[in-house]
Specification:
The chain is mainly beta and 242 residues long. It contains 2 helices and 10 strands.
Length: 242
């Protein structure tokens, strides 16, 4: 009779794995190293490139210097035209006869200013003034020559006398209305800036729309300034005043 060998359960001393844990070993990690090495061809410095760069910088500096010199020269040589301002206009003894002949006296007060500095003196010669109604000349007068120092103002007066100027009927119809007169100045002007003196040139100034109220009562007219204060006169071509 064969005897059976008794079953003996082997007991291990290692603790059992925790519940829910994966007992399979993790897969080995795969590490990939990508090493790129780019070998660029060696470029030798071009000596002409540095020379061209220096040439461009020199041209830019030269152009800036020319512009700065031009602006400084214009600022030094530029001369501003004088300022003319009509302060008031009055008329007295204004009368128009039956055959449309105008007689009257106009007194114009005006101011001339020299806006220039740097020892710029303005000389006025051969000054003539003429007064108009519309485009119809009524009278003219001659003024004395004068000079102006830099930043100087000169107050002057021009007196016009008409002793029989013919006018049209439409002017006669406006005797009792506000009338607007125009004054034009003509002169020969020269500049003196330090040692430099310019040649004489013709100079024209327009003072437009100078209002007065004409009263024809009693055979003698009277007018008072009604222009709302001083009025600046206009110079047609101020850029020619150099």
């Amino acid at each position: 009779m064969c005897s059976r060998r008794p079953f003996i359960k082997s007991v291990s001393n290692r603790p059992p794995p925790p519940s829910g844990a994966d007992t399979a070993p993790p897969p080995p990690s795969r590490q990939q190293n990508y090493n790129f090495q780019i070998n660029l061809p060696y470029r030798q410095p071009d000596p002409d490139e540095a020379r061209r760069r220096r040439s461009k910088i020199a041209e830019l500096v030269f152009c800036c210097a020319v512009w700065a010199f031009t602006i400084a020269l214009l600022a030094l040589c530029y001369r501003r035209s004088p300022d003319f301002r009509a302060d008031s206009l009055s008329v007295s003894d204004f009368n128009i006869s039956s055959n449309n002949l105008v007689a009257g006296n106009w007194d114009l007060r005006f101011t001339v200013r020299n806006p220039n500095g740097r020892k710029t003196v303005i000389n006025y010669e051969h000054i003539r003034a003429e007064i108009f109604y519309g485009k119809v000349p009524l009278a003219e007068t001659v003024l004395k020559p004068f000079s102006q120092e830099p930043k100087n103002e000169t107050s002057l007066e021009a007196r016009f006398v008409a002793n029989g100027t013919f006018v049209d009927d439409w002017i006669v119809e406006r005797l009792n209305e506000d009338m607007e007169f125009n004054v034009r100045f003509y002169a020969s002007v020269s500049l003196k800036a330090g040692w430099r003196r310019s040649e004489e040139q013709d100079f024209t100034v327009y003072c437009r729309n100078l209002k007065v109220t004409v009263d024809d009562g009693g055979g003698g007219g009277h007018g008072s300034s009604d222009s709302g204060g001083p009025k600046r006169c206009r110079i047609p071509y101020p850029w020619l005043f150099l």
